[in-house]
Amino acid sequence: MSPADSTADAPRPAYRRLGDSGLKVSPACLGTMNFGPPGTAGVGCCDEAEATRLVHAFLDAGHNIVDTANGYTDGESERILGRALKGRREEVVLATKAFLPQGPGPNDRGLSRAHLTRALDASLRRLGTDHVDLYQCHQWDAETPIEETMATLDGFVRAGKVRYLGCSNFTAAQIVEAQWAAERVGGTRFVALQPPYSLLDRGIEEEILPTCERHGLGTLVYSPLGSGLLTGRYAPGTDPEPDSRFGRLFRSGLAGARNWAQNFFTERNFRIADGVAAVARELGTTPASVALAWAGRRPGVTSVIIGPRSTAQLTENLRALSLDLPPDALTALDTLSTPDHP
């Protein structure tokens, strides 16, 4: 049996409503930031043939939401995904994002009407489709009135180019401002937020998740493996392997990338990673599986974004999301990872 075929053995997903919408999504969301050659942030490295196998295996396993962005690998992620979905477009909840620079001009980034209109049309061309199912603001734009952004996005919905709207990396206050602005302009509200969430980063629990619940947003959480630190692949005092995410960051030459990576390797983070590895040994599974199972069952989480680079990793990730963690393991993980833990 090939790795791609083995995804058929993973439990079939139970779909969940995305926020207050009627849209049903799977508990796993396939992230495609790795699709294509290494990009400006050192991400990428999943070639088109493997990316296509990943997409098809993911859909064959019964999952349905796939996420990309126009800024991933300089647009190559969208192009590869669009070609991979040929003949299977109607099986997919296709999500993409906009905000990041798409050129050198003053209107080539952000959430203005000028930029979003061009950005959406360019994404549709790269994806080879006439609409996206979920269009997301990649981050807040302090230079554009939120009313302009929400009115523009509503126009996309009315034109049939977009089905649902979401945001990424918004604070609780920004979510509220956007929802109120949508009401003021008579527009379409957000139904999804894409925030970081893992045992290393539980910052959304205090304000953001309650705000999402009150204002009708589901969550597609990203970086559930703590940028890979929770896999047990890294050790204190040693340089990361060259083909790892942090290894690529170290070699990227981007200003501040090496410092950011090194600052992520904190005593607290490694202590949590060690605790996850201990739970995994007790359960006879992998640290990655424990971290994904924890994230997938947290209150307020609709879907967990996974970013496998091979079909073997995809199979492991999908099985992990059906793993039942016993109460004592959950208690240990919760205590170890509580944000104010010394």
TrEMBL record:
Cited SUPFAM superfamilies: NAD(P)-linked oxidoreductase
NADP-dependent oxidoreductase domain span: 29-336
Keywords: Oxidoreductase
Transport among keywords: no
MF (Gene Ontology): oxidoreductase activity
GO cellular component: cytosol
InterPro entries: AKR_Detox_Biosynth, NAD(P)_OxRdtase_dom_sf, NADP_OxRdtase_dom
Top-level taxon: Bacteria
Pfam families linked: Aldo_ket_red (PF00248)
Name the UniProt record assigns to this protein: Aldo/keto reductase
Organism: Streptomyces hoynatensis
